Amino acid sequence: MSEELLVPTNTYLKSGIHIGTKFKTKYMENFIYKTRPDGLSVLNLQTIDNRIRIAVSMLANYNPEDILIVSRRENGWKAAKAFSKATGAKLFIGRYPPGTLTNPQLKTYIETKILLVTDPWPDKNAVLDAFEMGIPVIGLCDTNNQSNFIDLVVPCNNKGKKSLGLFFYVLAKEYLKKTGRIKSDEDFKYKEEDFSDE
């Protein structure tokens, strides 16, 4: 391993961020390291870590108020809220009405420059809106996801609370460091538990 991971391997493994589903789409095959005897696919940790770094670099080009996190599924809410609180990014949780990014007449209308969805399938309305507006999309994709209209796929277990918690914890910390808002890990005043239920 040439580069150290953003968090110790053990931390990644404990969160289950690498555990996929029994289904795999053609697109996600490239990210799969192996299939376990019980049929669950296992994602490549090095690739997950690498993609989180790319996501950080992409987000670092934007001010927090120009970033929108969308999570329809409840298991992503705590992590997404904590990310929003730590960074100042905008947040939309729950059912996303189509047109939120495209129709200024709507009460829910939001202007954003980049979108991150916790799961492109339940969050597909947001993905389609962003695509229509030419807004780049970062999507957390499990082994059963399609990657249509996603600019950056971050392979990970996007259903587990601990996995999403760790992802958003690392993303928030690295984003704040990359944008110069904090100098080091020590300056990050949140703990992993703030992002997920133990």
Helices, strands, pairings?
Blueprint: H1 9-15, E1 32-35, E2 41-43, H2 45-59, E3 67-71, H3 77-87, E4 90-93, E5 114-117, H4 124-133, E6 137-141, E7 152-155, H5 161-178
Parallel strand pairs: 3-4, 3-5, 5-6, 6-7
Antiparallel strand pairs: 1-2
Helix pairs in contact: 1-5, 2-5, 3-5
Describe this structure in words.
By secondary structure, the chain is an alpha/beta fold. It has a single domain (9-178), classed as 3-Layer(aba) Sandwich (Rossmann fold), CATH 3.40.50.10490. Helices cover 31% and strands 15% of the residues. The protein has helices spanning 9-15, 45-59, 77-87, 124-133, 161-178; strands at residues 32-35, 41-43, 67-71, 90-93, 114-117, 137-141, 152-155. The strands form two sheets. A five-stranded parallel β-sheet has the order 4-3-5-6-7, sandwiched between helices. α3 (77-87) links the parallel β3 (67-71) and β4 (90-93). α2 packs across α5 (161-178). It is globular. The chain starts with 8 loop residues before the first helix and ends in a 20-residue tail after the last helix. The model has no long low-confidence stretch (mean pLDDT 96).
Bin the strand percentage.
Answer: 5-15%
Taking the sheet with the most strands, its summary is: 5 strands, parallel
**Portion of residues within helices:** 25-40%
CATH architecture: 3-Layer(aba) Sandwich
| Global shape | globular
- Order of helix and strand elements from N to C terminus: HEEHEHEEHEEH
Uncertain spans = none
